[in-house]
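User: Hi! Is it possible to get a structure for several chains at once, not just one? Here's what I have:
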Amino acid sequence: MNMFIHELKSARKSILIWSLALVGITVLFLSIFPSISRDADEFKRLIEGYPEGVLKAVGLQINTITSFLGFYSYMFLYVMLCGAIQAMNLGAGIVAKETSGKTAEFLLTKPVTRLEILAAKWRAVLVSLVITNIVFVAAASFMANFVAVEGVDVTVFLLISASNFIIQLVFAALGIFLAVVLKRIRSVLTLSLSTIMVFFVLSVFGSIVGEEGIRYVTPFKYFDYAYIAEHSAYEARFLVLGLVLVVMMLSASFWLFSKKDIHSI
Amino acid sequence: MNVIEIKNLTKTYGSSRGIEDVSFSVEEGEIFGFIGPNGAGKSTTLRTMLSIIYPTSGSVTIFGKDSVKDAPEIKKEIGYLPSEVFYYDNMRVKDLLKYSASFYKKDCRKRIAEMAEIMDLDLNKKIDDLSYGNRKKVGIVQGLLHEPKLIILDEPTGGLDPLMQQKFFELLKEENRKGATILFSSHILSEVQKMCDRVAIIKEGRIIAVEKISTLKENNHKKIRIETKIPVDAAIFEFTGVTNVEQDENTISFLYSGDINVIMQKLAGIELANLWVEEPDLEEIFMHYYEKEE
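Assistant: Yes, the chains can be modeled jointly so their relative placement is included. Here is the combined structure:
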């Protein structure tokens, strides 16, 4: 318990900053929405003039962009991007600070097992992400009340919002896994930014060429917002894929971390 | 009873050398020195004992328990001071020590205050703002606050001024008097000589000797220096028991171990201008050990 509380305390600042970032994105985007929905036809005509590739790349769908949920799922791309960076940074950072030698000897000479150490860290990551998402959903709901003219399907709204958390779990687990596997991490931020850029570019590329297979490769494509809007549910196979990946990466991390030699410096 | 028993411990890192076939044991209540030059394998041995790294082969038993399998149990009674002290940044000394204490089911507040007083450590400072020496003090308090039965120190005195070193050694001796066993690694012989009962000497990953400090010093080694009236060929001292022969014009010095009568007879045949017979300090014996091995 002491390790969990310590980790959560040291994540305090990052939780605050990332929550503010997500709230900022949400407020910024949703405050444009009223003007778009007011002049819906004109806006549609405007973007119809854009090349199709551009529309696909940024995830704009002309039919739905002027409805609240359509707009919300469009801006959600940026929420996911931001959320993924937060999650991977958190996961990689919380483990790398023990394995990159700077502070490793402190915890490793205490009367706790390696498994207990990593479990406490994972719990702290989980709680940090939950807090961030609660703040984000609260802000998004607040803004939705303000700007949505027609009634909003609450289930669909919450399903879209919660998908950020699931994608974050995948990236947090990936961050932990890489921090355990890699011998030394020079900069956690560089690692997570570059990894996430790769997945992001893949998903943009997948959107442009319309390749379905890419959806299995990049978590950014696990959730199809048109599907969610239609069925009020996630696609089971992608949900399961995400959760299986999380369990696998975590199991591997726990196993490797308990066996790993921790070198100084 | 042996608090530490290391048997045929080997640790290899890929191609580079770690330690090979290291064996020694430390008895309860002992202050045991572990000496060798930098890179000889001292830290590797200590870190293996603490399961920070795992042995390639061989075993370490501490308090009669296996150092890998029973690591958490063993560590309840171990205090460790690493050679380089890095702690979580952005924490106050006080908070770090509180965090450290929270791992042991003991109330350590009084002891933290006492030791901070002795070591002259400001508990309210941020660790980031501390000098190297002051960080070392944090390490010392952190390692001793739970009154461990076994204290493991890896090059503990770097960065401490002589006065602090003195206080630190007194603190250690006090712990030892209360029953703590101490394993002390260092490349500085004089501090080992001051503190320890026995030492293990490690070189290039292998233990080359385990000796009592008193034996090391006795060992019948004499440091003999002569000044002759006429130049003498130093080669006449090339016989069993003589090592480290050095000649500087009419002065010849060497270490001698063996029957004192033999060397006296030899010297009697030379026209001497002056003669010194001294106890060598540990440093010289230590060098002698190293050279013997080569």
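The interface with chain B takes residues 2, 6, 10, 97, 101-106, 108-113, 116, 259, 261-265 of chain A (CB under 8 Å). Chain A has a mean pLDDT of 90.

User: Great, thank you!
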